[in-house]
User: Fold Formate dehydrogenase oxidoreductase protein from Orrella dioscoreae.
Amino acid sequence: MKNELKYRPSDQPTGGWGSVRSLVKHSTRQRAYASIPALLREHNKPKGYMCTSCAWAKPGEPHTAEFCENGAKATFWDLTPKRTTPDFFARHTVTELLAWQDFDLENEGRLTHPMRYDPASDKYIAVGWDEAFADIGARLKGYDPKRVVFYASGRASLETSFMYQLLARLYGNNNLPDSSNMCHETTSVGLAQSLGTPVGTVLLEDFEQTDCILSFGQNVGTNSPRLLHSLQLARERDVPIVVFNPLRERGWETFVNPQHPGQMLSNSPTQIATQYHQVRAGGDIAAMMGMAKTLLAMDDAARETGGARVLDEGFIAHHTTGFAEFEALVRRTAWPEIERESGLPRAALEAAGDTFARARSVIAIYGMGLTQHRLGLDNVQTLVNLLLMGGHIGRPGSGICPVRGHSNVQGQRTVGIAEKTALVPLDAMGERYGFTPPREDGLNTVEACEEVVAGRIQAFISLGGNFIRAIPDTTVMEASWRSMDLSVQIATKLNRSHLITAGTTYLLPTLVRSEIDEQATGPQIVTMEDSTTCIHASRGKHAPASANLLSEPRIVAELAKAALPPNPKVPWGAWADDYARVRDEIASLFPRDFHDFNARLDVPGGFPRDVAARRREWETDSGKAHFLLPQALSSSFDDGRDPNVLRLVTLRSNDQFNTTVYGYDDRLRGIHDSRMIIMMNRQDRERLGIPEHGDARLTTAVDDGVLRTLGGLRVIDYDLPAGTCAAYYPECNGLIPLWQYAEQSKTPAAKSVPVRAGPDRAPGSGG
Ligand SMILES: Nc1nc2c(c(=O)[nH]1)N[C@H]1C(S)=C(S)[C@@H](COP(=O)(O)OP(=O)(O)OC[C@H]3O[C@@H](n4cnc5c(=O)[nH]c(N)nc54)[C@H](O)[C@@H]3O)O[C@H]1N2
Ligand SMILES: Nc1nc2c(c(=O)[nH]1)N[C@H]1C(S)=C(S)[C@@H](COP(=O)(O)OP(=O)(O)OC[C@H]3O[C@@H](n4cnc5c(=O)[nH]c(N)nc54)[C@H](O)[C@@H]3O)O[C@H]1N2
Ligand SMILES: [Mo]
Assistant:
């Protein structure tokens, strides 16, 4: 059934009564009211469980309710009493389920039993855990280790992640792609080159001391709502917040703090952005160059008049290299080019530069709007250049602040889930566990896809996630997937990746983080790392959804026991009995960050990792921070020459966590009851001959012999720059060519896909 779209531009603040109503609605729909009192008591609280939604920092002194609307939705989704049982699978063939929407699949509730796909009946059938492990282990023993992939989505704990990467390495490969490859890989590669750290430098307390905040390409109201507390406090100190985003995202505009009775009663929101610049998709480098140009001009003037300098000359001289080249590039770049590529007038960029110049300490926040472009790395590194000009790294109240995605995506990297061998202490691992680790780099997400398409992958193990739905080129990938021999999906709910079956397919259900994880030594603690590098403990509080679930560490341990020869130095079973022992292993292999790990579990606010850049020590080749030159002003694959090619931004609604769709409302954008939409500039729509409220068809504007097209997208005249349009992920993933990824990081370029748009004559012909 096609839902009828309702669109009314939203003037509602983020938070406020809208979020309370949404919370009540989602708890009712998931029949999860019982978890509301627990939300208040335990969610992101000391000795409680850590939210499975976003990775934003958890304060040492939590608020009464340390959760947001979307954290609550994630919790209701996990703790719903609905169940996807063997009975459900007996009633539906996989072919039938392939026609279901993402929402409907997961909305059936939690998986309860290990299942194996039976091709004869086209159904999943329950299987015993022992039988499943024995069969998977026997199969894995028969494959070429280089042709097996161990994917991880970013939710699994540090303990599970450590065990999982060790399993892959003992098995014989570094094929450890993770969701980070689709996300902030650009950050990990880019910041390492600029600053010698793969992670951000900002801690939560920096928000209390900053006097200017920049934001590029991040949607705070939906994707990291708890960050709004820090932004609100900053605004109460009159700190300017300068936002660059093609869309006017409500979260960056106004916020009513649901924890603030006065504000709730008076409904008088806090204005968040003090400047809002609707940059065109892919236009950020140009915008930043315009700001840098302004800083140079102001600094020139200060030098002439003997006024206060804008550049931090001492910092630049002592701590950086490459400034002269960057300065020359900025001076050479002319305003007309900057205006054309950014889509912003010079005066706007001068205003942003002026605000920046006046601040003693600046924080720069960013998200997928910078990382998911062809020149994503240049985006991130140009932003770092701006900060370096004013010495805004390693000074209280300043720094670079990538807002990560999954709740432990950053941590998985920290404990060894990485396809790049240089990031992992392989020698130490080899010595400790008595084996010769594989030395060649493994496959990242895009490379794993390429290998699947080429028919060279025999088995794919998925620790969570919805890989096929999250990656580009859906049609090609789904077709290729079926030629694999084995697919093993460790999951909490049914999703489309489980339905694209291989020769043999297993669905292994697991606990969620808020559930009690009882092992031989008692209830277990797990840990995770937030966006600001702080490590937190999490203790499940709720009874498991089914008696047949195993924990993730247990599943990984049993897979390892079944697939690997016994190794007395790797006591998988004992580790799964007592996760503290896994933490001891992590502490011994990663001592700099994790020394005394078990003793530090309950440090309020988590304990931070050691990030040298915070001390202005630069772990780069040169020992300095690097100004790096952007290759071009546009970060997009679209060269901007054909006005009929639009840049498609694929993004998240407020009712979604990645491919998990909680509902069909995007309250903050005023979009209701449908996800098959396209937000378009009215002039573009009229020029392209699409009727108002009509349906559009998008076709990817690349010439590689593959037709990528999607129809049935209801057009919304939306406030975004001409030439930019926006629609939802994952519905639009089939439009993204697999080869359109960020240079170096290989993060798929999901944020400015070149597309042609036209009227769709056959309404509802969604593909
Ligand atoms: N509730 C909820 N929370 C989440 C998630 C979720 O799906 N739901 N996902 C989690 C994950 S894994 C991640 S990675 C993060 C993602 O969080 P975000 O980084 O916020 O990612 P997106 O939702 O893709 O939104 C990107 C933003 O960038 C803007 N944008 C697009 N292109 C450009 C551009 O070229 N320039 C600029 N300046 N802006 C641009 C878009 O308009 C949008 O506001 O959130 C995490 N948190
Ligand atoms: N076009 C486009 N594509 C994108 C993006 C985009 O912005 N645009 N964003 C990209 C980004 S940033 C990311 S991170 C990826 C996300 O890619 P993934 O991380 O692979 O996908 P998710 O949708 O987060 O995975 C959801 C599934 O995870 C399982 N799950 C949930 N919780 C748990 C758990 O605790 N344990 C286990 N074992 N399983 C669990 C459930 O079965 C659920 O169906 O998508 C990427 N794809
Ligand atoms: Mo992500």
In short: The chain has four domains: 6-79, 83-183+413-593, 186-402, 645-759. Residues 645-759 form a domain with the Barwin-like endoglucanases fold (CATH 2.40.40.20). The radius of gyration is 25 Å. Residues 179, 183, 405-406 surround molybdenum atom (ligand 3) (CB under 6 Å).
